[in-house]
Amino acid sequence: MAYSFSHMVHSMHAKDVKLLMKQSSGKDMISFAGGMPNNDLFPLKEIEDIFHALPPDLKKLCFQYGPTAGYPPLIKALKSYLEKKSLPVEENKILITTGSLQAISIITQEFVNKGDIILTEKPCFVGALTVFETYGAKIIGIPVDENGIVIDELKAVLKKLPKKPKFLYVTPNFHNPAGIIYSLERKNELLETLAGKGILLLEDDAYSDLYFEQGDKHFKLPMKALNKSDVDVIYTGSFSKILGPGFRLGYMLASPDIFDKAETIKQALDACTSNFCQILAQQFLAQGALENYLVFLRKEYRMRKDLMIQSLEKHMPEGVDWHEPKGGFYIWVKLPAGIRSKNVFRESVKKGVVFVTGRTFDPKGKGDRFLRLSFANVPKNEIDKGIGILAEALKKTMTKRDKFNTIS
Amino acid sequence: MAYSFSHMVHSMHAKDVKLLMKQSSGKDMISFAGGMPNNDLFPLKEIEDIFHALPPDLKKLCFQYGPTAGYPPLIKALKSYLEKKSLPVEENKILITTGSLQAISIITQEFVNKGDIILTEKPCFVGALTVFETYGAKIIGIPVDENGIVIDELKAVLKKLPKKPKFLYVTPNFHNPAGIIYSLERKNELLETLAGKGILLLEDDAYSDLYFEQGDKHFKLPMKALNKSDVDVIYTGSFSKILGPGFRLGYMLASPDIFDKAETIKQALDACTSNFCQILAQQFLAQGALENYLVFLRKEYRMRKDLMIQSLEKHMPEGVDWHEPKGGFYIWVKLPAGIRSKNVFRESVKKGVVFVTGRTFDPKGKGDRFLRLSFANVPKNEIDKGIGILAEALKKTMTKRDKFNTIS
Q1: Does A327 touch chain B (CB under 8 A)?
Q2: Residue A7, pLDDT score
Q3: Are the beta carbons of B134 and A268 separated by less than 8 Å?
Q4: What is the ipTM for the molecules in this complex?
């Protein structure tokens, strides 16, 4: 089926998609690939009830143009939602965007000219890499460890750069693909490192509501909330993981100066974001339905994460490593030395399992000792079977390499 | 009310908005300003019924990501819709965009670098002007008469240009703001003039379904359908006027080469257009609901147009001129020599009527002998009262000018 196939390949490396197409039509595959929410968990009834209950004037407004900055009641509802995350909403302004990718795109258009430098994490969300490449930026990736971006590596890069980078793009909470959350200490270190340097921090926070444990509240605090220095932090968020990507609803929280230019750019991109989607999301937020839905989602995704961790422990050979995520959608698996993710992919696809290879998330197309497994959009009863198949594919790849090493 | 105010000022000149804000909060004004459909005419029940009747799998898909090019069944439905307009859908590809303004924005990003020349009509749709300015284009406007762009003026400009323009942007069917439709002859002349010159034609066709008379079918044919020469025509269309701008749904029909780059740019703008909106629109199209709705819309807008023409004839002083539109939303009113639209605006706002001044649609901010009246989004029973007030404001402006002339 062409359509479900296009879903599976969402965020996959172009070369891997080619291989997948050669091997199969995507039918009956177990997919750990797509970075999207689970189709079976969307709040269908809640949204249908919300639309049905709208007063006629609001229904009409769903069909009409809205202001470029966003539907004012949604901005208001977002303000109190973001205030609960300790974000400084009063000194900043909110721009509603057509998905948070549009926010990243707008900021890139606002600050970056061809040849300008953008710093990212390595690995990095592939959608952001696509945006930065499209606008001709030179991308430099800074490694990430289990507590966040590696500060010494960042400092070393900053020293060597021929010119000041336009911004550093980070996803501190439940990283895509690395699955980690920055420690509070690392967040503060990063802010200190950037202080006084005039380098913007672009903080992408698409996943922070999807934690598995209540835990330490400060752990999940956005960097824009922690920031006490002079660093200009632009914060972006999304409804894609807490309502549905089909609404194409995101937002940015930025200082009034940055907001003003961003609003002008948005006007030239699509005039305004869908009122239809904005009004439904506003009601979902303002009526308190989001909170109940999040409780449900956290439980569901946690169950899938637990199943996948158990299966990894059961099936994976020695030398394979992973970090158990505290939230989000992903497990970032480190392969034994000398094993390349794309070779595992080749074996795995033959046997009916797909994932995303590590190189996909590297601006230079390297970093292929990793693979990203998404536990979000896969039926629970397929997880163990799929990880079993993946482990077999990995073992076969390891055997081949051993043979090759013996021969050569 | 801040929100209805923001609706009223949609597409108004910034200076006029300032004046309006000084004079009033926008409350109880009669607005001939907004270029949007009428809130009371949207197909609320049809869309609610469509969503309610969707099978569960399609409802889930509404919430999910879709392919960058668009929801495949919507592309299929659009193909047969565009085939009925004699458009060459087989040799071209369709890209679904977040409103047709996004299509214009993508084409501008694809072809235009800072300082490049874009040709437009004069007057020109203000949204397109905003896009072209944002990307740093040099805009040159070619006058329009009641049959379309003036070919001799176009030829004269082409001769004088220091470098080849990247494209010519036109809205041949029910022009915004001029209210005209290109004659078949003029369309063919324009294609002949561009033949062999390597200048793209960007054809914006947001209004062609909103005709008032069945008339000559060829009259409404898109230029992309008429084109037999080597001119590369990019055709854009929109659901904003035939379903609702709140869906932010548009599309482009372009050659495969242009499509490929456009798809890459779209991926970096918002990844994909809302599946929620696309699936509702696809059902609206595929179930045949659009055709019935258009019959209703044409009748309703025609009634408003007739009322406004009658009122203009009744109230306007001598020396005021207009062209009766055959479709669309607008009447473009020419003021007596020496009278400036912004001065009439000043008087008119004081008395409670707003419209859009002519300079708004001129890349150079001139062309102020005209004003645009929209009959689309105003209650029928306010039209005569509003035109009466406007006529009084105009007469007062004329008297002032006469006094001034006498004194000086």
Answers
A1: no
A2: 56
A3: yes
A4: 0.94
